[in-house]
Amino acid sequence: MAYFGSLNLLKKGMIMLIASIFALEGFVILNCSTLGSFNPPEIKLPDPQPWPSVACSEIELERLHNAYKSNGIEHEIIAKRIQQADQALKNDLEFPPEGGQHNQWYQCDKCQIALKTVDDTHHICPKCNTVYSGYPYDNVIYSRKHSRLTNDMYACAWAYAITNETKYAQRVRDTLVGYAERYMSYPYHSANMGKKTDKPSASGGHVFEQTLNEASWMHQVCTAYDLVRKSDVFSESDHRAISDDLLMKVYENIAKHKAGKSNWQTYHNSAFMYIGGVLNKVELIRQALEDKENGFYFQMNVSVLPGGMWYENSWGYHFYTLGAVQQIIETARRLGIDLYSIPQVKEMYMVAMDYQMADGTLPRFGDSTTMRIPGWAYESAYHKWKDPLFLSVLPQSPTWDSILYGRKEFKKDSAKEIEFKSMLKEGAGYAILQSNGEKGRSSAVLVFSPFGGFHGHFDKLSFVYYAMNKELGYDPGRAVSQAYRLPIHRDWYRATISHNTVLVDRKSQGESDGTNEFFFTNSEISYASAYTDKAYPGILHRRLLILRPSFLVVADVLKANDDKDHIFDWMYHNLGEEISSSAVKKSDKAIEGQGFEYISDQKTGISNDLIRATIMTGKDRVEVIVNAEENSAILTGFGAGESILHKVPLIFVTRNGKEARFSAVIEPVIVDNDSQIENISFVDNETDGYLITVQLKDGSEEIYAYDPEKRSRLVKGIKTNSGLLCLRRERSGDYAILSD
Ligand SMILES: [Zn+2]
Ligand SMILES: [Zn+2]
Prior knowledge:
About 30% of the residues lie in helices and about 25% in strands. Among the domains are: about 375-415, no CATH class; about 425-525 and about 545-550 and about 560-655, Distorted Sandwich (Beta-galactosidase, Chain A, domain 5), CATH 2.70.98. It has 17 helices and 31 strands. The longest helix is centred in the N-terminal third of the chain and has 27 residues, at about 135-165. By secondary structure, it is an alpha+beta fold. Bound molecules: zinc ion (ZN) (2 copies). One zinc ion (ZN) binds near residues 366, 457, 475 and 477.
C-alpha cells in the first residue's frame, strides 16, 4: 500500500508542478483547471434500467433494424455484420490456456525487429532466423486469440439484436460464461514480465497483461452482454457468474490500479461506465466520473492541454484516448447523463483540424505512427453538434455508425472544408506554418511543447516539413512494432538524435519545454521562433523557422553560459532513398554518442564552404543548403524510420565552441527543375542582431534581420525594432518589406 501512496503523492506533486509552470508562463489558469460552464449533474441511473443500456439506445437499435429491412447499401452493411457472426459460429469456441502478453515481446532482441508467426508455438526472426517458443512469445498469440473470441462474440451479439435468432445469443452466453469460469484461474501477470517468474506489477490482469487492455476489452464484452441479456439462453446462475465472476472481478482488478493522469485511467473510467451501466450499479458510474484523482472530470481538467490536445503530445495517443472519452460520454448519454458541455470534450475533437499537413497527414510527434484525422471517430460528435467541419472528415458513404446515428448528410457540399492557415498553439507548444504557393501547399511545425511524459520525446525546437504533397523533414515517431522495451526506442526514436534539432555534446535533451518568441503570418511568409534553456543545462538555444512558398529557412543560435566548449550537431532527417554531397566521403570511423550506432552508410567530411546535400525522394529531390563556416564537420547517412530496416537519409553539420550558429535552406525541387538557391549566410547586423541572407540564382535576395531582443536598429537603411524584419530585393531595385 505504501507503494501506491507514494505514487499518488508523486503524481499530485507533478500536477502542482505543471500547474505552476502554466502559472509562470502566463497561461490562463482557468483554461486548464476548470470545466468551463459545465455543472456536474447529480449521477443517477434511469429506473427501470432501459434495454439496451450501454450498447446503443432503443432508437439507435431501431435504425439498425430498419436498415436491415431496407434494400441497398445500408442493408448490406448490416447484413455483413450478420455474415461475420455466421462465420464466427464456424470457429470453435476454444479458450487459450493463459492470458495474453504485450506485443513488445514479439521481437528478436538481437536484431531489434518484429517476429513472424510460424504457428501458435513457433515464432521466427526474419533477419537471423532464430525460432522463439513458449512464454512470452506464445502468449502474444494468445492475446490475438482472446481478441478473436471477443470479436466473434461481439458480432454474434449484434446479429442476435437484429435477427433475434437464439444461436447467436447462445454463442455470446457460452463465451461470457466461459470467461467467467476462467477469469480468476488465468494466472495474474503484467507486461513487464519477460519471464513467468518476474515480479508482476499492479498494472497487470488475467485475460490481458494490462489493466488498460482489460478495460478496453469491456467495451465489446459489456456491449455483447447488454444486447443479449434479455434472451432466455441465460440461467439465473449464468447471470450471477457473468456479473460476479467476470465483470465485477475485472472491475476490481482495474480499480486496484489507480493510474491518475493518463490515457490508461481514461480507459479504466470507460470500463467502469460500461460495467456500471450494464449491471445497473450507480456507484461505478460515480467512480468513473467523480473520483477526485482519477475520474473523468479530473482527466478533462488536467490531461487536456489548452486548445484541446491530449497532454502526451502525440496524435496517436490523442485519438487513442479520444476513443475512451467518446465511450464515456456516449455511454453517459445513453444513461441520461449529459457530459457534452464539458468544453475540453469538443476541443479534443476540434484541435487536430488545425494540424493537417500539406500531405493530409498529422505530424508524427511523440510515440505516434503515421496517421490522418480518423473520420470514423467523428460520427457521434457530428450527431451531437452537427458541425459541418466534421462532415468534411466523416466517411462519404454509409457505415455502421452513420446508420446507428441516423446521419443522412454525405455530400461534400454540405461540409465545411478545413481551412489551412498558420497558427500559434501556445499551450500545446507548436507553431504551425502553412503556405499555399504556386507550387502547391507546404507546411512546417516548430515544436516547443511541454514534455509529454512516457510517450513524449526529447524533441524540443525540432521541426517537421511537408511540401510537394509529401512528408520531407521527418520525425520517426515510434517504431511501428511498438519497440518500447528495446534500446532503439530509448536511443533513437525517443532520443534527440532522431529529431530535426540541434544535439549538444552527443547526448539527448533533458525533460523540458520551450518558449515561443515570435509568430507572424501573411500570404507571403510565415515564421515562428522559440527558445529553450532547459533542454541542456547551461545552453541557450534559439531557433527561427521561416516558411516561404518554395523553401524553408532554419536559423539557430546556441550559447553556452558555462564558459566551456561544446559539440553542436545541427541535424536534419528527410524521407527519401538517397543522399549525396560533394563534401563527404565514406567513413569507417564510428562516431561516439547516444544513438549514432543506428546511423548506417556514414560518410563524413570537413568544409569551410557552403554545404550542399541532395536527397532523392522518388522523382523529386530536396536540396539542403547550410551556411559556410570554418571547420564545419559534415556527416551524411541513414537513420531508422518506421523500423530499423526503413532507412531515412540524414545530414548533420557539426560546429564546436562556446557558441554556434547555423542557417539552412531546405528546398523541395520537383522532378528535374533547378535549385533556386545560390547561397545562405549568417552574419552580425552592423548595429544589433543578426542578418540571415538567402541569395537566389535569379539575382534576387532575401534578408531576414533577426534580433530576439527586438532592439531598435537599422537594416539596409530601414529602421526597425521588430524581432524579425523580412526583406526582399529583386535582381535590381530596392528592398521591399515582406513582413514587419
Ligand atoms: Zn534476429
Ligand atoms: Zn519524436
